Amino acid sequence: MFKKILVANRGEIAVRIIRACHELGIEVVSVYSEGDRDSLHVRLADEAVCIGPAPSRSSYLNTTAIISAALVTRSEAIHPGYGFLAENANFSEACEQSDLVFIGPRPEAIRLMGDKAMARKAMQEAGVPVVPGSDGIIESLEQARNVTQKMGFPMIMKAKDGGGGKGMRIVWSESELESAFAMATAEAEAAFGSGAMYMERFLEKPRHVEIQVAADSEGNVVHFYERDCSIQRRHQKLLEESPCPILTKEKRAQLTDTAVRGAQGIGYSSLGTMEFLLDEDGSFYFMEMNTRLLVEHPVTEMITGRDLVRLQISIAAGNSLPFLQQDIQLSGHAIECRINAEDPRRNFRPVPGPIRFFHAPGGPGVRVDSHLYSGYSVPSHYDSLLAKIIVKDDERGAAIARMKRALDELVIEGIPTTATFHIDVMQNEDFIIGKNVDTGFLRKYMPQYDSSRKKE
User: Fold this and answer.
1) Tens digits of per-residue pLDDT, 207-226?
2) Which active-site residues does the annotation give?
């Protein structure tokens, strides 16, 4: 096992990784920007190194500064967390070239799954169903027209290097195709440096269901069941739960077996998440693979009793998976709510600022992952995630009631947060029933929180 790890991230995920490392007896080096001097991840680490000014491009995305900090502190490995450099193949390669272990998959896997068009092809070759769509990259409006003439509408355009909902446009008719193509390619170029697109059939009422997998360097792959991430706003997840309320035992087995087959097909090693769209008729299709730890990993930890971060570190250290598939059991129901520094009544506008008082909920079956403390000032330079509230109970109705109670107990004074939105979700009858949940839930059942364009 490693003796010292550098955590190349900030906020709640840096705190989460530091705690896992300390439980494993590993010393931790935190890096921080000038805007994060007072952040909790700096205080909890054994050592801390300032890597630049507050803007991400000058600090948490500064590969040279991060690797230099790791070498100076004699760290053996770098954990990237999620976001920032977590799915950057060049950073993974730079770590290898500096004799540092990148706690994640090999650069080849990151590149393959990061290119959405190539990922589709790889999954097809592994026998994993994909959403019907273009055979490859769409480089011109004429090519896009040819695809829609063959497949009809609606279609969705996606950036081949995309993520986080950027570079995506739904096309409902021929009259929208030209403007959608122009906007999607421009947004993709700005966000990812490439305007290359591909197209898929747009499923109008799908659930977003993902399968957590883990694989070691010996080719062993296991799954940790599913998470339902269908409550979204502009393709951004807001709430996750497990198990999926509508999955039968047979459909769950199909999904999990398919996810394992996909990971095996590309020779994957590390934690990863296979994301699928589950259509109304029960068909499911591969959407993408996230080659990193996800924000919603605590949901899986709650329902399986497995520490995924410690497992990820162990795999990176060269250890085999410590258990077989039959050792991983699904127990109870878990829900995670993301508490962001955003005003849900004002189009989820980010609202950084000082936290006058913070009180986390507690009690049986409640977990809070956060970097907040009273007196902390939320900076404006980074993602707005403040805390994750995760609850577990024996069944879904009880878990919803427990989450409602936990949200009522949460106190964050100083700035508005998305806690009020989540309270409304917990009281929404369609969510409570569970059968009507799909990726268009906000538009149909909570329109006061949806500001997307017509039909999007």
Assistant:
1) 999 999 999 999 999 999 99
2) 292
